[in-house]
Amino acid sequence: MRRLLEENSGLRVVLLLCLLAPSLVSSITVSTPAELHASRGDAVALSCTFVSTSRPTSKMTVDWSYRPQSGGPPQTFFHFSSRAFPPLEGQFAGRIQWQGSPARGDGSISLINATLNDNGTYTCSVRNPPDVHGSPTSHTVLTVTPKTPSIRFSDVAVLLAFILLPSGIITLILIGWMLCPKKQHNQSKVYRSPIEVTEGEEYGVYQPAPKTKRSTCCQLYLMDSEDEAEYYNLKKRPVDEDYAESQC
């Protein structure tokens, strides 16, 4: 009877060890963000952390796989084992950088210049023998959207320069036009022959030139070509010193 009890106790211990053994080697846990959002052209940090009861060794591996949003089987595009092996061809060639640190339980990577074709599910798998069971994988759903246009300060400055500057110049011209009204042009000018003799000139008598008002700078500026010619011809016309008045 005593011998039977001892045998039963031994069986219980063996059964208990068998139950506890898987839990001792299946303690690795991998964690990633459930969702990530990015704009086209951004650099996306694909975070992956893991917890293992065993210290990471040269046998530890990290694999990243990708499944498109449209569906299909996952495809491994990145592998780490003592050193990083980024993809040399395919969709992610030249756009994956290793950011992890196995000693700190980090297996993260970064995706450079995200595109709309990168939408999908990214899976991080970590193996650290003897911890190869438990939850060695974790998934992240990445959503890349078109970048919203943004107005930079330089664009605003150029826009203001092309709109406000011409508007200001036109406003100044209009104000000057209102403050200095243009002299009305006399449409009833009569052409006078250069050999025409007026009354009094045949006897050598010159009529005194009529007193004219001195033109202002504003009137001279707004004077048209015909008025200018008449004005300067009048100033250059010789007059008798005894009868002409000074125009200055």
From TrEMBL:
<keyword id="KW-0325">Glycoprotein</keyword>
<dbReference type="InterPro" id="IPR007110">
    <property type="entry name" value="Ig-like_dom"/>
</dbReference>
<feature type="domain" description="Ig-like">
    <location>
        <begin position="22"/>
        <end position="143"/>
    </location>
</feature>
<keyword id="KW-1133">Transmembrane helix</keyword>
<feature type="transmembrane region" description="Helical">
    <location>
        <begin position="156"/>
        <end position="179"/>
    </location>
</feature>
<dbReference type="InterPro" id="IPR003599">
    <property type="entry name" value="Ig_sub"/>
</dbReference>
<keyword id="KW-0393">Immunoglobulin domain</keyword>
<keyword id="KW-0732">Signal</keyword>
<dbReference type="InterPro" id="IPR013106">
    <property type="entry name" value="Ig_V-set"/>
</dbReference>
<dbReference type="InterPro" id="IPR013783">
    <property type="entry name" value="Ig-like_fold"/>
</dbReference>
<keyword id="KW-0812">Transmembrane</keyword>
<dbReference type="Pfam" id="PF07686">
    <property type="entry name" value="V-set"/>
</dbReference>
<feature type="signal peptide">
    <location>
        <begin position="1"/>
        <end position="27"/>
    </location>
</feature>
<dbReference type="GO" id="GO:0005886">
    <property type="term" value="C:plasma membrane"/>
</dbReference>
<dbReference type="InterPro" id="IPR036179">
    <property type="entry name" value="Ig-like_dom_sf"/>
</dbReference>
<keyword id="KW-0472">Membrane</keyword>
<dbReference type="InterPro" id="IPR000920">
    <property type="entry name" value="Myelin_P0-rel"/>
</dbReference>
<protein>
    <recommendedName>
        <fullName>Ig-like domain-containing protein</fullName>
    </recommendedName>
</protein>
<keyword id="KW-1015">Disulfide bond</keyword>
